[in-house]
Write a structure and sequence with these properties.
Helix content is about 30%, strand content about 40%. With about 140 residues, it is α+β, with helices and mostly antiparallel strands. It has a single domain, classed as Roll (Nuclear Transport Factor 2, Chain: A). The protein is globular. This is Nuclear transport factor 2 family protein.
């Protein structure tokens, strides 16, 4: 007599499903959710002259600091999915104020390149931005960059 063994199902999300959950973390400004979707040894690199962030815990702290420092939203653009990655074009809507206090919203074109490991975790995220647009926004706000 044979005994049926339970079948283990590894529930790795599809890339579009992972992207959707990941984006919720950014839209709701939830550093814990964002970090939970990254691999323990993940790399997060914003290509603006800053150093890459290494590891899930460091990423969670980085996101918390980012959300405390800047008020920004998203305008969705194109998404392209590959076998183990996605590319996401979006526009950052950054709430800033002129030196006199008049608020304005800066628009900065962005591009994310995200690599996912076999476990369905974000292994690396590279963020590229339109530097001229960001510099112009910071100059208008009187922020040295």
């Amino acid at each position: 007599m044979s005994v049926a063994m339970p079948v283990e199902h590894n529930t790795v999300p599809s890339l579009p499903d992972l992207f959707a959950r990941y984006h919720v973390g950014w839209e709701t400004r939830d550093p814990a959710l964002i970090a939970s979707l990254h691999a323990e040894d993940s790399v997060f690199h914003v290509h603006d002259g800053s150093e890459p962030v290494h590891g899930r815990d460091a990423l969670q702290r980085h996101c918390a600091e980012l959300f405390a420092r800047f008020d920004f939203g998203f305008e969705m653009g194109r998404r392209r999915f590959g076998a183990d990655h996605w590319v996401f074009e979006w526009t950052m809507l950054l709430a800033l104020g002129e030196p006199g206090g008049t608020p304005f919203t800066a628009r900065v074109e962005m591009l994310d390149v995200v690599t996912v490991n076999r476990a369905g975790e974000v292994a690396r995220k590279d963020v590229y931005m339109n530097g001229a647009q960001l510099q112009a926004a910071f100059a208008r706000a009187g922020l040295a960059r």
